[in-house]
């Protein structure tokens, strides 16, 4: 790769990282504001007009806090586990196509950081690795609450990852490729949501469970486990778990847009803006469910995953395959 | 040249992690070293031009199977003390077997000079890979799926028996 290509790549990385981290910080503010409104209170409104500098103040506070390691903890794993959680969603965003190729001065710039030909599997692989941050954080803390939270996280994520993977199989069958760029290109005529509503629902629910948001937040259930796997964390390491969670909400919006809503395709607006417009409703929906729904019981969670989502996803695959063969012949 | 360097880095990482996985006393650490060696193996697959295999290795082995293993370790091995997992006499047989394998490998490499050369990476798209797998090796695929099915039925049988036993004793709600 020549030096201009390298500079362009670094610039793309910088823009995406800055957008994601700022987005995550302000998503925290949006969530606190909206939760406040849902509960008939104003939410944070002291730092700057309408609380607009609250994320900055929170960031400084968390950075300056003492970073404690509990006695008897597995020191190295305890210090590394939050990094895994924060890193994975950032890496996931690398394969999401942001728009059509740009043509600038005889040079074609693809608006995606990396067009992997197994991009979809890359997403599944990374999201299966992100569980380790939760499980190891819970184990390394040397606390019963954390251990229970970590165990719940492991069980929940293994169960729902299967449904998530199966819900994406029809998408691969329709697009004929694992590459996210090809999947978006295949939706130029119509978004896959119109032909795969069942997959859409299964993917949304299982992604919600993977993101550990209510009603699936059993690993951190406040009233029984205090905070579950991150009970013992403080300062910036505690914040890293939340940076990971909020970036994950944005990435989830991106994945839903790419797999079901046609990615950056759309009328009027240029690609990246169109994608942004499709991403924003998803975090808002997640905040809404958090304010509305009660937490599931543990056995309900497992039953729903294994006895509803997985069979429905399997039937959906068979039906989709049959229909594709019937339409081709 | 670059591939060669990457290969040796990966090989060293896999080797080191595997040795540590066997010799480590803390069960969770041993599982983590094993995961590292699996990730290295996935990197090796990617280097040889099989991205599909690399991704599946990470999803199935590093992501799902090792996660289950870790789950079981965390559930059963909660006292967290570093224990003497294996006593020295236990080591002798595996070490002898590994030495035999190593000797055979060295003899093989000495007899066949091309073995020391790197394989040229052959790139396959996921579609081509699937076609070869399900046309040329269909029998193996079917046999493995049959085996998994038998395991599933077995697990269902044992699990079902425990649930029935739990139902016979009222008041004691079975979890999981």
Give me the secondary-structure topology.
The complex is a heterodimer of chains A (329) and B (176).
Chain A: H1 3-38, H2 54-64, H3 75-92, E1 102-104, E2 107-109, H4 119-129, H5 131-140, H6 144-175, H7 180-186, H8 197-210, H9 222-225, H10 235-260, H11 271-279, H12 281-292, H13 298-328
Antiparallel strand pairs in A: 1-2
Chain B: H1 2-23, H2 27-47, H3 51-76, H4 88-111, H5 126-135, H6 138-168
Helix pairs in contact in B: 1-2, 2-3
List the defining traits of the structure above.
heterodimer; A: about 325 residues; mainly alpha; two-stranded antiparallel ribbon; about 65% helix; about 0% strand; B: about 180 residues; Four Helix Bundle (Hemerythrin (Met), subunit A); 2 domains; 6 helices; about 75% helix; extended; disordered C terminus
CATH architecture classification of the largest domain in chain B:
Up-down Bundle
* Percent of residues in helices of chain B: over 70%
**How would you describe the shape of chain A?**
globular
Low-confidence stretches of chain B: 172-176
Instruction: Output the helix-strand order of chain B.
Output: HHHHHH
Straight-line N-to-C gap of chain B: 52 Å
Q: Quick one: CATH superfamily of the largest domain in chain B?
A: NADH-ubiquinone/plastoquinone oxidoreductase chain 6, subunit NuoJ
Assembly annotation: heterodimer
From the 3D structure, determine the CATH topology of the largest domain in chain B.
Four Helix Bundle (Hemerythrin (Met), subunit A)
Number of strands of chain B: 0
The CA-CA distance between the termini of chain A, in Å, is: 45 Å
Approximately what portion of the residues of chain A adopt beta-strand conformation?
A: under 5%
| Average residue-wise pLDDT of chain B | 80
Flag low-confidence runs of chain A.
Answer: none
Gyration radius over CA of chain B: 21 Å
What spatial order of strands do you see in the largest sheet of chain A? 1-2
* Tally of DSSP helical segments of chain A: 13
């Amino acid at each position: 790769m020549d030096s201009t290509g390298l500079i362009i790549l670094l610039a793309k990385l910088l823009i995406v990282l800055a957008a994601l981290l700022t987005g995550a910080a302000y998503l925290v503010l949006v969530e606190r504001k909206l939760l406040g409104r849902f509960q008939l209170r104003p939410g944070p409104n002291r730092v700057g007009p309408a609380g607009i500098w609250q994320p900055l103040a929170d960031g400084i506070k968390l950075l300056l806090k003492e970073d404690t390691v509990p006695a008897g903890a597995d020191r190295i794993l305890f210090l590394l586990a939050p990094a895994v959680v924060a890193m994975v969603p950032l890496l996931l965003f690398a394969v999401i196509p942001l728009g059509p190729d740009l043509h600038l001065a005889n040079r074609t710039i693809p608006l995606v950081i990396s067009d992997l030909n197994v991009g979809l599997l890359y997403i599944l692989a990374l999201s299966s690795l992100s569980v380790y941050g939760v499980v190891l954080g819970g184990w390394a803390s040397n606390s019963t609450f954390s251990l229970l939270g970590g165990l719940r996280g492991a069980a929940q994520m293994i169960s729902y990852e299967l449904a998530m993977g199966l819900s994406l199989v029809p998408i691969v069958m329709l697009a004929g490729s694992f590459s996210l760029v090809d999947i978006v290109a295949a939706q130029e005529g119509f978004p896959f949501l119109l032909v795969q509503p069942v997959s859409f629902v299964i993917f949304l629910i299982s992604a919600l469970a993977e993101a550990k948001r209510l009603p699936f937040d059993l690993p951190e259930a406040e009233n029984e486990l205090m905070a579950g796997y991150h009970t013992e964390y403080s300062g910036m390491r505690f914040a890293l778990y939340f940076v990971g969670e909020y970036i994950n909400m944005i990435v989830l919006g991106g994945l839903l847009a790419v797999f079901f809503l046609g990615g950056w395709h759309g009328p009027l607006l240029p690609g990246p803006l169109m994608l942004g417009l499709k991403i924003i409703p998803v975090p808002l929906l997640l905040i809404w469910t958090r304010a509305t729904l009660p937490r599931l019981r543990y056995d309900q969670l497992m039953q729903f995953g294994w006895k509803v989502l997985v069979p429905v996803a399997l039937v959906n695959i068979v039906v989709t395959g049959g229909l594709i063969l019937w339409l081709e012949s | 040249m670059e591939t060669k360097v990457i290969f040796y880095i990966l090989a060293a990482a896999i080797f080191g992690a595997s040795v540590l996985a066997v010799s480590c006393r803390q069960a969770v650490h041993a599982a983590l070293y094993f995961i590292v060696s699996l990730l290295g193996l996935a990197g090796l697959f990617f280097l040889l031009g099989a991205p599909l295999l690399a991704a599946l290795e990470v999803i199935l082995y590093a992501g799902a199977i090792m996660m289950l293993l870790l789950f079981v370790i965390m559930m059963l091995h909660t006292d967290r003390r570093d224990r003497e997992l294996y006593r020295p006499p236990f080591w002798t047989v595996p070490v002898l077997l590994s030495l035999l394998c190593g000797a055979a490998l060295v003899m093989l490499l000495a007899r066949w000079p091309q073995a020391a050369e790197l394989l040229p990476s052959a790139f396959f798209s996921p579609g081509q890979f699937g076609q070869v797998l399900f046309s040329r090796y269909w029998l193996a695929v079917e046999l493995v799926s049959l085996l998994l099915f038998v395991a599933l039925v077995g697990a269902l049988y044992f699990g079902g028996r425990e649930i029935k036993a739990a139902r016979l004793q009222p008041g004691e709600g079975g979890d999981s």
